[in-house]
Amino acid sequence: MSQVENFATETGAAVLNGPLTTAATRELSPDLLKNELDNRVVKIRPMSTPIDQISRWSGTRKAGSMIVDFYSVDTKPIEAKLLNLSVGRGETIQAKMETDNDKIFQVSETILVPEVKVTNREGKEESLILYVVSVSSEGIQVVSVNNYDTGTQKMVIPEVSAGAKLIRMGKAATELDVQTSQFEALPIKSQNYCQIFKAQVEQSTFQKIADKEVGWTFTDQEEVAIIDMRLGMEKNFLFGSKFRFMDPTKQEEVLLTGGIWHQTAHEWQYTKGAFDQNSLVEMSRQAFTGNAGSSRKVLIGGSKFIEALHKLEITRTISSGEVKTKWGIDFTEISTKFGTFYVVLSEIFDQCGHAEDAFVLDPEYLTKYSHVPFRTERLDLRTSGLRNTEAVVITEASCLVLRYPNAHMRVVAK
Q: Does this model's pTM top 0.90?
């Protein structure tokens, strides 16, 4: 009988002189079995690990290294605060404006100052609008376009107090303008570490189970091991701290992944024990505005936060109660005028000291990187002389990252 041969080709892989086995598939197309395993993992108690569930359901990106470099970018800021406004003198009255974020303003842009009311040429009251004449390292030169002085019959710049809000509006080009100031949304490079997660199950009957990965039938013991592994991963994915160090005993490097809780600076706070309907509206406003995110987001909270949410009364502006199933998770839907929350309880928040806190996740901008996709390996501990058993070791090296960090939000009780 001819010997079985496995070999790769330019367009795929082939097996000669024998059947297609799990071992051959693992050798020639390892991702085939890994993907099938991942699809089965999401069916194990999905409600207990919503972050891991959503990221796993959406698919992962292959990471060539344990250290993942990624880029995040957000929309250009629309708001700044005035630091100083120095009004000049001359035929055309200009002012030099200094703000807490001069870089967002460009020549030809218009700026709204909503707190300052002026009178236009027609005698009607409006909010002050400025026009950017020039931008330099010394400041921003602006003129007023709607504060009409009847005495001089000119547009003058009124007094504007420091701290006034400045809203960046559209550009106003001249007829002969061909070009305009350039704007590129340059992404910010960030980094996270893939953490190696493991679980091990030993039982003499596991050899035949491990040999049939695609048709993997989970026993009770396997399910307990995997759910414990996923619960640990969920905690790291949420609240982990990115760090690398040397294990003092093994003298080997350990990489810890950074949690998504720390990856966003977008935060909304409420008074502990005083979450009411107005709080929900305010939280919705901050979660869905000013960040160019999705109109539907996931709200994952601890038990005390979910309890406070559950006690709210339904009004005509807020609807609640409908159950939606997405990513294998049953969510309660809360709809507001700002957007819709898919709400789910996570006991991980309670276990990590965040029972009254929550996290608003925009699933569209959550990415999972995997250096070692979820896989199983069989260890023959009997042959090695350690124990009279065979073991199944479950391994994954992965991390989660937030793209558009401000599309997500921490909810913190103070």
A: no
Euclidean distance between CA atoms 221 and 203, whole angstroms: 9
User: What is the torsion angle, in degrees rounded to the nearest 10, for the CA atoms of residue 267, residue 268, residue 274 and residue 277?
Assistant: -140
The pLDDT-based confidence of 29 (bands split at 50, 70, 90) is very low
Taking phi first (over 0 means left), then psi (-120 to 50 degrees means alpha), and beta for anything else, what does residue 406 get? alpha
Query: How far, in Å, CA of 358 to CA of 334, rounded?
Result: 15
What is the pairing mode between strands 329-335 and 340-345? antiparallel
Alpha-carbon distance values, 318 to 256, 280, 337 (Å): 41, 9, 7
> What is d(CA 264, CA 297) in angstroms, rounded to the nearest whole number?
15
Q: What tens digit of pLDDT does each residue of 343-392 get?
A: 999 998 998 889 999 999 999 889 898 888 887 777 666 666 566 666 77
Query: For residues 23 and 211, what is the distance between their CA atoms, to the nearest angstrom?
Result: 8
Long-range contacts of 19-23 (CB under 8 A, 24+ apart): 22/211, 22/212, 22/213, 22/214, 23/211
Tokens standing for residue 354:
């965040």
Tokens of 322: 């409908």
* Three-class secondary structure of residue 274 per DSSP: coil
Q: Residue length, the chain?
A: 414
Instruction: Please work out, in degrees rounded to the nearest 5, the angle formed at the alpha carbon of residue 36 by the alpha carbons of 32 and 211.
Output: 80
CA separation for the pair 363, 297 (Å, rounded): 7
* Helix, strand or coil, per DSSP, at residue 166: strand
Q: Which conformational region is residue 254 in: left (phi greater than 0), alpha (psi within -120 to 50 degrees), or beta?
A: beta
Q: pLDDT digits over 279-323, tens only?
A: 999 999 999 987 667 889 999 999 999 999 888 876 655 666 678
